[in-house]
Amino acid sequence: MRYNLVMVGGAAMGLNGVSISALGRAGFKVLVCPCRAKALSLVAGVEPDLVILGERSMADSLEICRQLRQVVAAPVLVIGDIPCAEGWVWANDAGADVYLVRPVRGGELLARIKSVLRRRRRCLEKRIV
């Protein structure tokens, strides 16, 4: 199964060597939206399996997360600069499912993506039965 990921934030994400092609080789179809201005329409049109937010400004990521929650049910992973506990609380309040602190290592990002998608798949399968 090939999952659709939408990444909002482009180069500002601080993904430490995790490239779009590496995510592609791991089985993901990745769409990059470098600015939040176009993100809502892109996400609504694509219906992604996961949205990754990594704007340069944490406030921008949290605001778009709030807006996304009004139009999409896909899980949201936020990448930010705020230390874990405080950042997680803010991201969770905005509607995020996962929060990672920059810089994000490739293995950690892939593991989190797979974990979130595995839980989402199980939830969707239970609804179908």
Report on the structure:
- The chain has 129 residues and is α/β, with parallel strands linked by helices.
- It has one domain: 3-Layer(aba) Sandwich (Rossmann fold).
- The chain has five helices and five strands, in the order βαβαβαβαβα.
- The protein has helices spanning 20-25, 39-46, 58-68, 84-94, 106-128; strands spanning 3-8, 28-33, 50-53, 76-80, 98-101.
Strand content: 15-25%
CATH T-level fold name: Rossmann fold
Helix content: 40-55%
* CATH architectural grouping: 3-Layer(aba) Sandwich
SSE string: EHEHEHEHEH
CATH homology-level superfamily: Response regulator
How far apart the termini lie comes to 19 Å
- Give the beta-strand count: 5
User: Mean pLDDT across all residues, rounded?
Assistant: 81
Provide tags for this entry.
five-stranded parallel beta sheet, Rossmann fold, 5 helices, 129 residues, single chain, alpha/beta, 19% strand, globular
Topology summary:
Elements: E1 3-8, H1 20-25, E2 28-33, H2 39-46, E3 50-53, H3 58-68, E4 76-80, H4 84-94, E5 98-101, H5 106-128
Parallel strand pairs: 1-2, 1-3, 3-4, 4-5
A few lines on this structure:
Helix content is 46%, strand content 19%. With 129 residues, the protein is α/β, with parallel strands linked by helices.
